[in-house]
Amino acid sequence: MIYASFRIEWPGFSLDVDEQLPARGVTALFGHSGSGKTTLLRCIAGLEHAATGRLSVNGDVWQDSDSWVPTHRRPIGYVFQEASLFAHLTVLGNLRYGQKRSRSADRRAAQFSLEHAVELLGIGHLLQRRPAALSGGERQRVGMARALAVTPKLLLMDEPLAALDLARKQEILPYLERLHDDLDIPVLYVSHAPDEVARLADHLVVMDGGRVQASGALNDTLARLDLPIRLGEDAGVVLDGHVAERDERWHLLRVACCNTSLWVRDTGAKLGDHARIRILARDVSIAHEPKEGTSILNTLPAQVVSLGDDAHPALCLVRLAVDDKPVISRVTRRSADQLGLAPRQQVWIQIKAVALL
Amino acid sequence: MLLSPTDLEAIALTLRLATVTTLILFLVGTPIAWWLARTRSRWKGPVGAVVALPLVLPPSVLGFYLLVTMGPNGPVGWLTQTLGIGLLPFTFWGLVVGSVFYSLPFMVQPVQNAFEAIGERPLEAAATLRASPLDRFFTVALPLALPGFVTAGILSFAHTVGEFGVVLMIGGNIPGETRVASVQIYDYVEALEYGNAHRLSAVLLVFSFVVLLALYAWRPDRGRR
Prior knowledge:
The structure holds 2 protein chains of 2 kinds. Chain A is α+β, with helices and mostly antiparallel strands.
């Protein structure tokens, strides 16, 4: 468990956080710029010294009223927004910089993690190059490998994809997912991009104005209708399941989750693979009956849980339960009224698009 | 057109003075530059101004104050006498002290600029990679600031070679001890030996040009950063 409590008062900015975060899986710190998410991460790394603060990670106190562990003694790995590689060292020199400084007991583990990180991030062919000779995406991968090579007990990532264009982002995301699947290190991941969060996070902390607005398991938090922070077009949920069937003829995959199945486009995932799918609220429509004669592949029975406001007065968000998993739907208020939507009502939802992440 | 033994002696002394001064400046100037580059103290302005003073102050003023301070009745003079070193004015080491002050901005400013250009980030990255503050300084800040150090070293050395006013005030004109090339030229002119003055002046002119040419031509992997 990570217990973090910080208070900072700067001119024009304040941070006031008192949170427990899980020390396993990926926790996304999500919010707009200026929401304090990066500052919180820097406090946890010891790069920012909050005058009043308390921080303990799995029982080890890193900061309280009378102690302060400096950054270089914290067992962390840190990935900066712009890789921040050392320009005077080669890629290998960068990777070894932290590895050499790991405590002697960790050293063999560090040698292993360096090799493992190189392989995991696919940078074996870059080792002799200088950072200046790398592309943005390669640089960021080296930055991640460098952070992993110190065998961190906690990995902190500050918008590692924000400085990259879409293509580079797509290049790195698979590596981040492998990180997620292969490593048993808790990760705190700062991001303002809903798609990254949907794809990578297990736990979501929503920040605004230096305060935590919501914190909880990814799906519970995404499905909340009362969050002051609106995801707008990106409102939606993610569901975890596994690939259960492949339809060769139509190039589709059946993903089993929450006692039901969803058909998605075949992305080449293997049978039995863990699959995370994302359903945006705008792609979910509601009907009384399972419709026939429709182009929509995925129609599921669901129960209305609650209704909430959306940004525009013509629209509302409906929280539904498919089995026990939440799904949210965006419909017009007029439709909701015509359907007579009310909590505990049984309905059918039609999902126009399901994205396999 | 050969240089006389006196000229060679003056040139050797000049080079020795410039070398010793530059080495001392690396040791003295680096911490000052580091502090100036990173401090948020309200003393940053005043200290920066004091360091830059020799840029605008007439060398005779600097030399005068040093002479008084290091003289028999000055505090430094009292100290050096008490320690059994004797008095510094009119000695080689007196010149070194004067030169260190005189060339200080030429060391501090390029190095300070280089440290400032590095910024916080590489040092923070090093901290997250288990490097202690001293370790970060030597393994990240120094190598990244290397071009600044080369510039500072060349400028300090060349500036010390070109020193005249301070030398005259606190060093006088003792052959082999304090008579550097610039003073030698002054002597030649005073004695109306223009031929000798020409020869030595030409040597200094060529030297200065070559140094500056090297400085402008030297661009170490600028694309790296």
